[in-house]
Amino acid sequence: MVFNFRKIPALLLALTVAAGSFARDTARPNVIIIITDDQGYGDLGFTGNEQIKTPVIDAFARKSIRFTNFYVSPVCAPTRSSLMTGRYSLRTGIRDTYNGGAIMAASEVTIAEMLKQADYRTGAFGKWHLGDNYPSRPMDQGFDESLIHLSGGMGQVGDFTTYFRGDSSYFDPVLWHNGTREQYDGYCSDIFTDNALAFIEKNHESPFFCYLSFNAPHTPLQVPEEYYQLYAGIDPSVALAKNNPSSEQMSEQDKEDARKVYAMVTNIDDNIGRLLKKIEDLGIAENTILIFMTDNGPQQRRYVGGMRGRKGSVYRGGVRAPFFLSYPARFQGDKDIATTAAHIDILPTLAQLCDVELPAYRKIDGRSLLPLIRGQEVDWAGRPLFFYWARRYPELYNNMALQKGDHKLVGHTDYNAPITDFELFNIKTDPYEQHNLVLEKPDIARQLKKELDDIYQQLITSENLLHPPLIPIGSRFENPVILNRNDAGGERGIWAQEEIFGKWDVEVAKGRYNFKFKFIKSVAGGGTMFLEVNTVIHQMKNEADTDIIEMNNVSLPAMKGSLIPFYREGSKKIFPFWVEVEKIK
Questions:
Q1: What is the CATH number of domain 384-466?
Q2: Whole-prediction pTM value?
């Protein structure tokens, strides 16, 4: 049994027995999870889009077990934390995609750590988005090998190694291999696949877990020209018009975005084809659990199977995702399962399929899907699913929903709104969420609201939300530390602004440090650099126009709190783009 003993107190190392232990006389299966970024439910030929070219995924779907009512969170970091832990994201400390809210608590036990009980080799390739510093990186969370970009997307502010590349950030990128910067040649999706295949080749003679997490087709929308040309002449509004009760219209920019997204997805399809061939050639396809899914709805306006809403929305267009599972050694494919399932169910399902024990002393919100796959009679109608999305923290009844059985209560209203201000849908008879039943069935609405209130109150008092993860400064496990904008808190919506209040919440080890402050643009000479860490404040005059200012040999006591740097230039206070902190003594 292998665990990170820095993360879990000895008392918590005891493990509960996973319900329904799987057959012990067979070799444990390999596990491959493929997840894409901002690929909506409608971005597949299999789900009804006649314009997109996804022959590999479509063929895989046809021979897989298909959960036709599978749900995720409205945005990416919450989905990934729930996938990795089997828990609602708020329990894990994930409350946002930036604003300092995309750092998962180190005490969480991931799928990778869980599978370590059975000596699985583990690898993560692509998007992580659950923390860029120790102890929240993949290499700290159970992965033997990792090749990732930082923050929520390549070319975004948190991924400072690609941000300044602009519209070429997906090509020839600097990525992070096991915590070290390395330069790569090629297109990002190809690079992540190349390295996932190398990992599989190296470890295929013993059980492995490969997490292939494509950052495409997330913005910025960049794709090799040969793929773009496959779609250069199409009109994506033709697909949108199909089963589109909301009558949304596409602008010319929407159409161009859709062409690029479709091209990026076709590139992913080709890469998945390479992966399928690899496991066939190695003779391990039969004993490999392979999952394909996406993380939320589409960011841009395009075909989404006729559903209402897109990324960020709690309507089905924002949270319904394709989910295809194949395990040929155990299950016959080409099967639809209509029972509601979700990202939180993946960890307990894998625990049972791989015959490993569930993490103990924590609430697992998900359920194993194995009884459903086996066709056993189980009662899932009473299991509620909670959805929300708002910046920083949940906003009571604003973009919030609870789904239970056939009914779904949706709130886009005030914290003290009457029940008549909510929406109630029967998603079995009204899958496009067009007919509000709240006046016809107020008793059902009130009961769902009571359950929503109970879950909400429970989640917002989660330990990891009340005491969010701090970034260690001066740890022997990461020195120097680079604090990026994705993990910066402060003003709501902090991104690439210069004149904005920002901070990082840190835990500092006593010692002497060198600080390097990088600015988006050069600051003018004649100003003053300030560094505040709780009660300690240092200032230093700067005489030169520069985009990097260094403060060396800074003495700091052991402390927890906010690290607040800014450059005062006249009446301006300019926040750095990133800060490098190196412990020197």
A1: 3.30.1120.10
A2: 0.94
